[in-house]
Design a protein that fits this description.
The structure holds two protein chains of two kinds. By secondary structure, chain A is mainly alpha-helical. Helices cover 77% and strands 0% of the residues of chain A. Chain A has one domain: Orthogonal Bundle (MetI-like fold). The termini of chain A are far apart. By secondary structure, chain B is of the alpha/beta class. Chain B is 33% helix and 27% strand. In chain B, the strands form two sheets. A six-stranded mixed beta sheet of chain B has the order 6-7-8-3-9-10, with helices on both faces. The relative contact order of chain B is 0.20. The mean pLDDT of chain B is 91. The chains are: A mainly alpha, B alpha/beta. Chains A and B meet through helix 6 and helix 7 of A and strand 6 and helix 2 of B.
Chain lengths: 231, 217
């Protein structure tokens, strides 16, 4: 028990003394997760909107596929992205393996199903009177689509938070695609795994506290958004 | 002889082979306030949707200012419908009323919104910043009406506008209807079961039964 307390104490010291190795991992995590969130939202929101707004043959099949991808293991995504980015892979020439943008590609694949599925659900569950209201106010089809996305904005933000929570806490993709390279692609989660393996609990606990703080902020934000989405 | 604002000729509307509306001829003049009455299922709401150009009839022609018009064409920016249970966008009262003006690229939006809110009996200083969920049922109805009045439509259609309102709110809707005609030059077609209210506001009333026009008073 004592070594745990010592770990917490040292963890606080590392955080507040500005330990460069700790902050390098935090920076890599923020960089990779920000890149992947931008990509996930840019691709996922339009696709989720199309899936929720339209009715087409095979829609149920597409929904089932998207829902299945929600539980895709991160190591499998890591393996697939690694296979594509490795020197002999189809995208080997891009030089993205063991880089933060490479990790962001994998994390985008992790976040996309969450954004698509939750956006589609949000659009489908909008009030059935909305299209008629927009039509009677003279909205064009494009204006109707944009207004519909805005109506679902709180639920879409909730989707973004859920995706961010999954992305920021994953290990498999960062480890396999990033390679856990110190000062370069070592993220909070891969650093925790490494430091704990080395018996360096303090660094692991310091980074764990950062992750917990992020999770807390995400949950506080999500609670507020859920309230708005229900209203 | 002046051209009617909107006229229907040999209109038949069917849903799944069931005829819900069968009208040989009906026209509405500019600046008029006309009521539609009849039991449930008599075709009032269907007639309003056709007049709003939200759907096309299976047979017959609808002409707007003398020209044949199709559903979801540019004409529907001159016609607007207030449904029985209106939906407000998840925005402030101001943003709800301003929405139609913004998508049309209009100027002086704050002034126009304030005037429309005044017409429906909602003080702009009190209500403009309120969120959609901070309104009572009667206030929602009046904000939705203001959102349509502000567009200065040539034809304003209302489906059961007083169905869930108390006497005071119904009177405010009555005054707003008269203002829409007198101040904005709108023509109004109002479907209602509230006969005393409808008789008080409409210049004439068409009675429908089983999709047919049975009499006009």
């Amino acid at each position: 028990m004592e070594y745990l307390l010592q770990g917490f104490m040292q963890g606080f010291k590392l955080l507040f003394s500005g330990n460069p190795e700790t902050y390098s991992a935090i920076t890599a995590t923020v960089y990779a997760s920000t890149l992947s969130m931008i990509c996930s939202l840019s691709i996922g929101v339009p696709l989720g909107f199309l899936l929720g707004y339209n009715t087409f043959p095979g829609k149920k099949v597409v929904r089932t596929i998207v829902d299945t991808l929600l539980s895709f293991p991160t190591v499998v995504i890591g393996l697939v992205v690694y296979a594509f980015l490795t020197r002999n892979g189809p995208l080997g020439g891009t030089g993205l393996l063991f880089t933060v943008p490479g990790m962001a590609i994998g994390q985008t694949l992790l976040g996309l199903p969450i954004i698509i599925a939750m956006t589609a659900n949000a659009v489908e569950s909008l009030d059935k009177r909305l299209p008629m209201t927009l039509l009677t106010l003279g909205a064009t089809p494009v204006q109707m689509m944009w207004a519909t996305v805005l109506e679902a904005r709180y639920s879409i933000m909730l989707a973004a938070m859920a995706a961010y929570g999954r992305i920021v806490s994953e290990v498999g993709i960062s480890m396999m695609v990033g390679g856990n390279i110190k000062w370069h692609t070592r993220t909070i989660t891969t650093a925790i795994a490494l430091e704990t393996g080395k018996g360096e609990f303090a660094v692991g606990i310091a980074l764990g506290m950062v992750l917990l703080a992020v999770a807390l902020l995400v949950n506080i934000g999500a609670a507020g958004l859920k309230k708005r989405a229900v209203q | 002889m002046t051209t009617p604002l909107i006229s229907l000729d040999k209109i038949r509307q069917r849903y799944s082979e069931r005829t819900v509306l069968d009208i040989d001829h009906l026209e509405f003049e500019e600046g008029s306030i006309v009521g539609l009455a009849g039991p449930n299922g008599s075709g009032k709401s269907t007639l309003l949707r056709l007049l709003a150009f939200l759907e096309s009839p299976k047979q017959g022609t609808i002409t707007f200012l003398g020209r044949p018009a199709q559903a979801k064409s540019t004409v529907n920016r001159q016609v607007t419908l207030l449904v029985q249970e209106p939906y407000l966008l998840k925005r402030t009262v101001f943003a709800n009323v301003a929405y139609g003006l913004r998508i049309r690229g209009k100027n002086d939006i704050p002034g126009k919104v304030a005037r429309a809110l005044e017409i429906v009996g909602l003080a702009p200083t009190v209500f403009a910043k309120r969120q959609w969920y901070e309104l009572s049922g009667g206030e929602v109805q009046r904000v939705a009406l203001a959102a349509r009045l502000v567009l200065k439509p040539k034809l304003l259609l209302m489906d059961e506008p007083t169905a869930s309102l108390d006497a005071k709110s119904a009177e405010l809707i009555h005054q707003a209807v008269l203002s829409a005609r007198d101040e904005y030059g709108a023509s109004l077609v109002i479907a209602s079961h509230d006969m005393p209210w409808l008789e008080g506001v409409a210049e004439r009333i068409h009675y429908l039964d089983s999709g047919r026009l049975v009499r006009t008073v």
